[in-house]
Amino acid sequence: MRRLVGGALAGALVLAGCTQEYDDDMAMTTTPPLVLETSAPEEAAATSAPTTDAQPAEPVDPATAIPEEELLEQTEWVLGLLEEDATGPAAEESARRFAPTFLEEVSVIQLGTIFAGLRGSAPYTVTSAAQSEGVGRTATLTLHAADQPLVMTLSLDENDQIASLLFQPDTSGEAPQISSWPDLDEALTELGGQSQVVVGDVRDGTCEVTYTTRGLDPGEAFPSGSVVKLLVLAAVADAAQEGDLAWEDELTITPDVTSLPSGVLQDREDGSTVTVREAAELMISISDNTATDLLIEAVGQGALRESVTTAGLDTTRIMPVPTTRQIFQLGWQVDSEVRDRWAEAAVPESREAILADLPEELDVPAAAVTVPVWESGVDWFLTGAEICSLHARLQQQATSGAGEPVREILATNPGLTPPDGVTYQAFKGGSVPGVLALSFYLETSRETEETDGDPDASPPGGVVLVVQTRSEEAIDQMRAVTIIEAGLQHLAQGPG
């Protein structure tokens, strides 16, 4: 089974409350602890869902794909609750298995009702299983029953308790045939909204764009969600190079920088510390929002501006870089009048004044973070070429002594299983309601062979694929991942 980007995918029917889900990103950050989608989105069901006449896949043993003992044990316990003759879960067992934040939002009675309903389609057969790589603690399984297959996603917190649980119909569908980049453009139209594809060659710290979606202005910035965290990482690496910040420095978690999930740091005690290195790893690999805001505070807007300029990005459009906490407030806490002023603000100074007036408290109900707000300018807007430039700059920074951790940080979560022949894969994605952006930097054995044996050769270059989708409606992310994965395979094959 290929690894799904970010674990939980948006668009599910909310059964209770708020909070955490693994990676990416803010659309998933407010995915409640227990979610059950009872049917596929109408369009997805018609175009991409597996048919019940198809030959079922062979059963797999979750133990072969989930090496972490605690994650496997909790996954097998949930699978046991789905058996035809199962009951519960009982209150005492639920208190032991589920995180307190989970049980604050989902009562034991609700749990019993939901699992009883799921057992109505039993027996289930596990036909694929995978564990998230890097620091994420998420298992993703496909379950076959008499009805449409389900994807189950389970995440653990730092205490080995279940922090989130998601069941969704499998709308991933068959991969499209991609033999040219216009083929990918065509396949993406299935998602609705508007999608932009940018492909680039990276060498010596620069990106040369080789393809952009036809009919779209290549200079138009799209909402990109947490892909902007590449910029934050670049600013951290710059600060490390200048000696203003060290990877071993400790950052203190305080209420004024604690954001909403995704991530794990928002659940740590006030006053606890995290190193710059750990925060950067969490920011990139599981899109930890509190880690991001800690790093933005540590480097400051001045350093961010310098990184924007060095990477060749548009400072007038991008600056100041809002924290994730501020994006949540702008999008779903303050009055629409504030969003109107934000949308009309044409210069950084105007946006700085709006951010300065935001409430001190972060008070965003989970149910609110389902409405797209990118049309009001609430997001981080980047062009595909700018994202490619950020990948290029980061790889260049990684060649310096101070920037060496960058390369490992970017590859901790490759997003999707690297295609054959790929020797290195960096990834950062982002999503908010109505927005999905995925970016990959690949090096293949071809680039490595070009420099083997030549001591004067530049470091091997790579290629970048950026896909940005914006929509007034929820995006079927499962189907999007299948389509983009086919594009990633095409990227790895070489020019074309």
UniProtKB/TrEMBL annotation:
Q: Name one GO molecular function term.
A: beta-lactamase activity
The UniProt record lists the EC number as 3.5.2.6
Q: Which domain of life is it from?
A: Bacteria
Domain ORF 12 gene product N-terminal stretches: 67-162
Note whether Hydrolase occurs among the keywords.
yes
Question: Which InterPro entries did the record assign?
Answer: Beta-lactam/transpept-like, Beta-lactam_cat, Beta-lactam_class-A, ORF_12_N
> Where does the record place the Beta-lactamase class A catalytic domain?
215-321
Biological processes, Gene Ontology terms = beta-lactam antibiotic catabolic process; response to antibiotic
What are the entry keywords? Hydrolase
Q: What is this protein called?
A: Beta-lactamase
Which organism does this sequence originate in? Serinicoccus hydrothermalis
